[in-house]
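Lecture notes, unit on binding sites. The following record was shown on slide 14. It pairs a sequence with zinc ion.
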Amino acid sequence: MSSNRTLIRGGLVVTAAEETHADVLIEDGRIVALATHGSAAADAWTADRVVDATGKYVVPGGVDAHTHMEMPFGGTFSADTFETGTRAAAWGGTTTIVDFAIQSVGRSLRAGLDAWYAKADGNCAIDYAFHMILSDVTDSSLREMDRLVEEGITSFKLFMAYPGVFYSDDGRILRAMQRAADNGGLIMMHAENGIAIDVLVEQALAAGRTDPRYHGEVRKALLEAEATHRAIQLARVAGAPLYVVHVSAEEAVAEIVAARDKDLPVFGETCPQYLFLSTDELAEPGFEGAKYVCSTPLRPKANQAALWRGLRTDDLQVVSTDHCPFCFAGQKELGRGDFSKIPNGLPGVEHRMDLLHQAVVDGHIGRRRWIEIACAAPARMFGLYPQKGTIAPGSDADVVIYDPGTAQILSAETHHMNVDYSVYEGKRVTGRVETVLSRGEVVIDRGTYTGRAGHGRYIARATSQYLD
Ligand code: URP
Ligand code: ZN
Ligand code: ZN
């Protein structure tokens, strides 16, 4: 018997494709085989470690395709480092993140990417990869895109929001899309009309409307929909596929549905905060609403039905967290008296798998769809499948033993993210992560963290498998 064989016995294996009562054999960090409980094959297996999953789900480790660890924003940095953020992800059953390296204006993509490699190297508890944020589309950064695709950075985020920071005008966006159409990269779009929003911000502040809730009022759903529409048309002109990030407005979903009805290669992502939170939280009294400031903003509850529908109909393919935490004390507080100075972003990397399981319990989605939108689809969308996102022979042994029957209360008291509040404070969810394996190593063992910084490896990605 080899010392690196693990056997997961007795669980219900749930992938995006099927549910099977099977034992799972792991060797050298990879899944070797699955066999029905009690079958001759399964009974013959031996291993040095046996994990009992009786009564539990055995699911692929989550793939969170949108995180921002140590991200510079609004004069500060998001509060989770690669070490704390990936550890929190592991606690929540996520075993791969795709974070965003940032090009600074006037600098090369290479310089930005190298800075992000250095931040993450040796610090991650789980595997990680990078997208690249294009802040400065020039002839030279366009040429660099080709080299990055070859290197495994196969997706590029552009911003129609945040003029003067990450913003690109339509000409720059079109040029980047044309390049992606040629080199196989996938353009990810932050679709909000930032120029119009900045006018509304200025007018709101001049009229004394400074509270956090005005962040939601100026970042209008129509301006998300308009930008989504424009991004889709620019992508059509360029002949490029498009992935719209953090979709929150019903009107924006409608633009994506219309594009997909025309068989265009347009994809959409939403996030748990848009599915479970709303402008009700943003309007909490005093300065409490600052905890919920993110962009696109939280929307009125009525929008949630369209997001759930989009996830059921596959008009939205992926749920990521857009994890970008800022502490209330000292960070969110930068915007007291001026909502436009509140750093944009919410913590969430730890809770995505649980919240989406709650969506199964609530009847919004089925069990396999849970695994599709949280594991398989993000892996395929970003060139990680089937290494990540499924449980199949040859895949990395990133596996979660999930207890579907035990309830938990989400709270800053118990979470592991490096942030002093929870946007889900007091929320009861049914289901919890019991044990997590990353490439065959147990990193969470029934409520104990057994992982280590540096276990996580960088993964060079293929191009999107949604375009194959
Ligand atoms: O509010 C957000 N979403 N902050 C992170 C940056 C971004 O636009 O994704
Ligand atoms: Zn964004
Ligand atoms: Zn983001």
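Take-home: The mean pLDDT is 97.
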